């Protein structure tokens, strides 16, 4: 069997994936839409998209969007975006039942994000850290991850 490769010859898995990012059998038509490997968008739009994926229970997809930011933002910000991507994939592992992987990634991500207190790019760093710690505590009890928000919720007077 040959591996899927992109135009540059790098390995790529073109198989459809389930909502938690696991590859489905070749030819399956029941996969969810994938985030493009070459995603490039402004930071605010990418954060909005990642947050929509988190709201929709698709942390693997949020991870892929945040990973794109990690790879394209200035060096001084990369640990922030990598940490957020690690938290999102940690949530994915928790939903998959992989407690060991979830713990490792949530801890690494939390530690990276904690370095950005006071330099938040509009992110709610304290809330991200609080929810990540809550999710770490819930792993041993097999609790579903608490919802993660990247930005403070705005209050609309019409709602």
Features:
159 residues, mainly alpha, globular
Task: Please give the largest β-sheet.
Answer: none
Question: Cα distance, first to last residue?
Answer: 54 Å
Annotation field: number of helices: 5
**Compute the gyration radius: what is it?**
16 Å
Strand content: under 5%
The chain-level mean pLDDT equals 84
- What order do the helices and strands follow? HHHHH
Residue runs with pLDDT of under 50 for 5 or more positions: 155-159
- C-alpha geometry: globular
Class computed from helices, strands and strand pairing = mainly alpha
Estimate percent helicity: 40-55%
Strand tally: 0
What's the SSE blueprint?
Blueprint: H1 43-55, H2 59-72, H3 78-96, H4 99-114, H5 125-138
């Amino acid at each position: 069997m040959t591996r899927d490769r992109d135009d540059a010859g790098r390995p790529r898995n073109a198989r459809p994936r389930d909502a938690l990012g696991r590859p489905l059998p070749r030819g399956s038509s029941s996969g969810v839409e994938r985030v493009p490997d070459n995603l490039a968008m402004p930071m605010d739009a990418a954060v909005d998209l990642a947050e929509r994926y988190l709201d929709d229970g698709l942390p693997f997809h949020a991870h892929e969007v945040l990973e794109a930011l990690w790879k394209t933002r200035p060096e001084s910000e990369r640990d922030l975006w990598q940490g957020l991507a690690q938290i999102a994939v940690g949530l994915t592992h928790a939903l998959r039942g992989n407690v060991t992987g979830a713990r490792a990634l949530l801890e690494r991500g939390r530690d990276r994000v904690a370095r950005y207190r006071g330099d938040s790019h509009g992110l709610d760093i304290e809330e991200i850290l609080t929810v990540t710690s809550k999710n770490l505590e819930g792993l041993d009890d097999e609790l579903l991850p608490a919802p993660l928000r990247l930005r403070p919720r705005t209050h609309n007077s019409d709602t």
